Amino acid sequence: MDQRPCCFSGPHVDTSLEKIKMAAELSTSINIKEPRWDQSTFVGRAKHFFTVTDPRNILLTNEQLAHAHKIITDYREGIVSPGLTEDELWRAKYVFDSAFHPDTGEKMILIGRMSAQVPMNMTITGCMMTFYKTTPAVLFWQWINQSFNAIVNYTNRSGDAPITVGQLGTAYVSATTGAVATALGLNALTKHVSPLIGRFVPFAAVAAANCINIPLMRQRELQHGIPITDENDNRLGESSKAAQQAISQVVVSRILMASPGMAIPPFLMNHLEKKAFLRRFPWMSAPIQVGLVGFCLVFATPLCCALFPQKSSMSVSRLEPELQEKIRASHPGVERVYFNKGL
What we know:
By secondary structure, the chain is mainly alpha-helical. The chain is built from 14 helices and 4 strands.
């Protein structure tokens, strides 16, 4: 009879013990204030935003969000959950970041989170590009789109200053009215152009509307400034100049984010609608359009968010004169300031 010991028992026990030891020894010095990947490079920012904008994050339950919140808040206080590994810590951080505002700490509105961008935008954009031929349809879908954008812009604003219901209402009405009026104006100008060019009207409207909606929904930041810090996160004041840079970068990102999903499908749909399949099943046009837009957005959303660092910066010399004086008096060594640009 073979008396040799089982070849699997020893290594299996050793590996388990090693894992337990590694988990028990998780360092409390991991910097979870910053993303896991190098944010000075586009690739690092892209990896970060592919994780943040992952649509699966919107399926997380309140219990899962609360668990991630506890892991992160405990870790920041030097408390490590028993058995926690480094990968689990980073996963908890990205769950936390996907649902809680970086400045206020509030749980963000579900459809305003960046993880909801792909499913929400693919549906709205697909419908805007399918139902663009009549004024009522343009009006309805542009209003839906700008209302959604207003929620996203409010949810992902920069800064921690409270905004009143009155201010929010004024911002929403002015933003949506201006954006929808722009869309209708562009639609009226292109009544007599070719069908292919007509398909690009929604994109032109969205691009123009973003230039209106985002600044108006974040007008409080432009009026009162956003928090700026030194490289060690020491708060130095509030700057309107920083808000202008932040909002400009967000406008550029959002327009480019919409570009692939609104520029590529029109060519494909113009070609497909001449084929027998869509002539036979015209109701398939909207689902196909939504699917094409969704495919584009899966990549465009994180890649365009990654165009600029989330933690933006600017030279002290570009700030308001009085703020420059204040910083040079209290923090003479500071040459650059940092701020959350929003998304």
